[in-house]
């Protein structure tokens, strides 16, 4: 069956197409007198025909699509879903929809995916720009978006370097990692391992640098055998943790780059017939919803992904209202959350 058109609605309601348009766009004031009876006839015709306005045509007429692009780097990690949830809630409240794309930074097609997304009709873009840091092509695409005056907001760490100026929500784990290390050292841990499970180094450099500096500040050696770099999956962290536990002198505490990978570490520890925190303390990052339901409950840190998403969307909406304002930056501090998975070093 042919999709009903605005002309079909006008014919059934016995009005002009212009009247249908005015009713659809709620433009009934100022010089366009439309009676309540006429308006109701139009609405009844719309309901009877099941008429739905053509979003593409509306976008062409209005110049906007009511769509915001959103890019996250890992569709499997719950932390990024929390960010996406914050973006979507704030966008929906303002009458916008989300076009979501996951672009893992190690994906060889990342540049093409980003380029294709940039060619779509979107009113703005919110992203975790990890895939851009080491890609000249991706940075050219970003520059093209900014040249077209498409609002762009990045959710990123303070250390992330991108050549172009755009609005940002800044949050990282440098200071919290110093606090974590201080806490573990106070519990007499001296061999502290690190599962550095990342797709690209920039995603976790804030934690690794703070870990190294904290050891140096405590006059402890940075033992490279205690730092295992691996991929970003739970299985990767499981194998990395097994590697650390098989050392002749295994760590008594373990930092894992995020809570998602800490799940793999926890399983590896249990499979090695060790207990958390009696034999080894475990600390993750991001405070994903699952963290407080693990056994034991996971000590972690939180950047509040949902709040980051909300703030990023607010920046984008403000940029749509005022395209010429200077680039804005919002900083959100991380929180330390100590639960059951950290305790005194075993003797």
Largest sheet: 6 strands, parallel
Shape: elongated
Strand order of the largest sheet: 2-1-3-4-5-11
Q: How far apart lie the N and C ends?
A: 77 Å
Taking pLDDT < 50 over at least 5 consecutive residues as the criterion, the unreliable ranges are none
- Assembly status: single chain
Could you tell me the radius of gyration in angstroms? 26 Å
List keywords for this structure.
alpha/beta; 434 Repressor (Amino-terminal Domain); Rossmann fold; 12 helices; 12 strands; six-stranded parallel beta sheet; 3 domains; four-stranded parallel beta sheet; 347 residues
Task: Walk me through what this model shows.
By secondary structure, the protein is α/β, with parallel strands linked by helices. It has three domains: 6-53, Orthogonal Bundle (434 Repressor (Amino-terminal Domain)), CATH 1.10.260.40; 64-172 and 305-333, 3-Layer(aba) Sandwich (Rossmann fold), CATH 3.40.50.2300; 174-302, Response regulator (Rossmann fold). The chain is built from twelve helices and twelve strands. The protein has helices at 6-13, 17-24, 36-49, 55-62, 78-93, 110-118, 136-147, 174-186, 205-217, 234-245, 259-271, 305-321, and strands at 67-72, 97-102, 124-127, 152-156, 167-170, 192-197, 227-230, 253-256, 281-283, 300-302, 329-331, 335-337. A six-stranded parallel β-sheet has the order 2-1-3-4-5-11, with helices on one face. Helix 9 (205-217) links the parallel strand 6 and strand 7 (227-230). Helix 1 packs across helix 3 (36-49), helix 5 (78-93) runs parallel beside helix 12 (305-321) and helix 8 (174-186) crosses helix 9 (205-217). The longest helix has 17 residues, at 305-321. The chain is elongated and about 90 Å long. The mean pLDDT is 89.
